[in-house]
Design a protein that fits this description.
The chain has a domain of 39 residues. The chain has a two-stranded antiparallel ribbon with strand order 1-2. It is mainly alpha-helical. Helix content is 58%, strand content 9%.
Length: 65
């Protein structure tokens, strides 16, 4: 995690003895990452629909989480 923090150059998590919470930046970063993943899944689904529509034997399909 420290290697990731050095790349991001910001603290994402506040650590206490028994509790961890996201910093304001961490919350914003998480929201943006989730939006990117949502868009990527939508693009995969679109591609999979297109492949399945034009191919009798599709070689792959989108994976959803």
């Amino acid at each position: 995690m420290s290697a990731f923090w050095s790349i991001v150059c910001a603290q994402l998590i506040n650590r206490a003895t028994r509790r961890r919470t996201l910093t304001e930046f961490g919350r914003t970063y998480h929201e943006r990452c989730r939006a990117i993943l949502t868009e990527a899944h939508a693009a995969d689904a679109l591609a999979a629909d297109q492949v399945h529509a034009g191919c009798k034997h599709p070689t792959w399909r989108a994976v959803s989480t």
